[in-house]
Amino acid sequence: MFSYRHPHPAVTTNVVIFTIVSDSLKVLLVRRARPPFEGSWALPGGFIDLAEDLEDSAMRTLERETGVRGVYLEQLYTFGQPGRDPRERVIAVAYYTLVPFERVKPRTHDGVGWFALDEHPKLAFDHDEIAAIAARRLAAKLDYSTIAFGFMPEEFTLSDLQHVYEIIQREEIDKRNFRKRVLALNHIEASGERRNGSHRPATLYRLKNPGQITFIK
Q: Which helix (H) or strand (E) holds 195?
């Protein structure tokens, strides 16, 4: 079998896992147990297997760290700055995903946790840059896709969905215009149930195609 003599860089996948909890956009981080950056927090990830597809590697990382599978996963960017990893020449292919908090079952040990996006500790490698780019990509896609629906539980109100948009965009949204726009997308449907509260009962909705992201023309 032919083999090139040229040095081969190593390849990793890293996944920026977003959720919304306690009215805050949060990212899942893991504490590194060995050098380099031992004891520092980092994005979940690892080296790909030689016979493994990039997305399969990212999905494996996602399921290992959260117990979640079958959710929307998007390739974000490739990070290949020389020296980004002190061990050797390493190229990282980053992905990001959105998961409802109720579905996540992180590994039960002290080395994993949710951190507010603007309050997390300094991360290992160039993971601060990766997380920041993922957050900007997420906010930008709200205008032309249904990506925010990935945060929703099985049933939710329109107010719940609007709150997700407001958390990500960090600004208030006009209620009437938002509801008109969302319902026109025809991506959600009434579940037939209502949620009781201090005011009149609110209609509960569900996604017609969970895990599917629609791009708006």
A: strand 188-195
Residues 41-76 pLDDT 10s: 999 999 999 999 999 999 999 888 888 888 889 999
Confidence band of 159 (pLDDT split at 50, 70, 90): very high
* CB 152 within 8 Å of CB 210: no
| C-alpha distances out from residue 193 to 16, 103, 156, 201, Å | 34, 21, 10, 9
Dihedral angle sign, alpha carbons of residues 25, 71, 181, 193: negative
Cα 11 from Cα 5, distance rounded (Å): 18
Q: Where are the alpha helices (DSSP H) in the chain?
A: 54-66, 127-141, 158-169, 175-184
CATH class for the region spanning 10-141:
alpha beta
In CATH, which of 1.10.8.60, 1.10.1670.10, 1.10.10.10, 3.40.720.10 is domain 147-207?
1.10.10.10
State whether residue 53 is helix, strand or coil: coil
